Request: fold
Amino acid sequence: MSLILHLFLLQRIILSAFTPLAQTMVAPDDNFISEIGNLFGRALRQLNGDAQGREARAAVLQALNAPEQNLTPREADRKEHAARTKALASAIESWVNQTCELHAAQQDEVAQLFEKTLAAEAERYAKSHDNQRENRPFGETAPMLFVQPLSVGSKFSVALINSIRDAVLSEKQNEVLSAALAERADFQRAAFREFVVSLVDQELFLTEDQRNRMLEQFQSNSKQITLPFYAFVAQPHYLPYQPISDILSPRKADFLDERQKERLKDLTSRNGNGNENYIIFQASEGPEEWQETIKRAVVSQRKIYLHATAVRIGYLERSLKLSPEQVAWLTVASKGATTDALAEWKETTQATIQQMQEQMGQHRGQNFAFSAQNISIDGIDDNQIWANAVSSLKQGHRQDDRRGFIHRARAGSVVALLDQELWLLPQQRSGLLELTSGALPHNTSLSQWDQWIRELLLIAYPLHKTRDADVQAVLSESQLAVWQQLKSFFRWNQGNNYIEIPLKNQGGSFQVQLNE
Reply:
């Protein structure tokens, strides 16, 4: 079989595996990975020569020989694009007018220039060809994605600003504009750097000094943080996530202690295939090999779980100034919590295996696959043994404001993301930050959605959890038009406190309960 056929088949399998997500809009679970395994099995059996396989092979070869589709935007896409670019242009126009203090004649010139630029952009977009347009889960005008670097809205903004520079502004006004654009970019990047530090803090439990040193390192890195889309397990299917290992490695993080470095190794040394939360079992291995797989998994997961508790012990030791005896007590508790969690995990996994053994008769002769979820590190803080031990030591002690830092970093990143859409004046940022901080949940725990659509969820809070009157007191008329566009992207069920995020390529949606 040719390499190109392998690649095409793999793409079809992966795209098919994602389809169930869109229909009912639930987070990926054990069945998600099992389905991938089953799809691989069916595809391989088909290619090995049965009747259905010959038909499938012919269909694949026909698809490979078919000309690529050059898809121009549909009418609905063109209307949505026109509305988004018009609102964006109005926000930029208002920002430039106030930033550069344009006189009346210049404002008229800018307005005329914007009309011409919008017409040219509409014509360009209508003729644009993109054979992947129908395959993306979110459209080109989706919140945030519309204004990211090299996106449709970003390119339009750059062209618009350059036209104003060349046709309207004086030399002095151009200098003012350059300085304002640089300050705006610096504000956004600083917010995103702090947010990425907070992501690391959630896993490594940093001190204030360590946070500051990490911020300094990120600022001096050759690879600058210009976006908030980072994760330990990067899943770029929905949002453009990049691995944190690209910007942080245990070898260069000399400000971390040994416990934190070990935990960071666990988080950054994975295989990068997106399935690190699951163990895959093949039917061809048989029940005995499945048991061996579980034994090996227990050893590795015990180590990872203990590393995760170790960074928590280090944090409590520093913030509560614990004695050696108290540290020893927490260490014993961490081992008990680990044993307890592993026992629960083994019981659940054995139940999954038992269920699959009972179904093997239905799949006789077929090399299907199924999965079991790895032990959840996020459950440590809710483990009764660990929680009781920590609670007994916290009484009468005051910790540093770690949760407050994480909350502030989230709010700052959301404001920076909204700034990319709204073109805030510097004096507007504090007002929107206050509204955003009040709308975001104070629970800083990791969410099952974080690896998929984290930023979309974060911006949904201020969009739907703030009073209209409060927003109107901060934003201008042109900015409010953009705000309403962003808000309308989500379907908000206020009575049940959840949002729906539509998936353009699959016809379904994510349904997510918002935290208080």
Observations:
- The longest strand covers residues 278-282.
- Residues 249 and 443 are 28 Å apart (CA to CA).
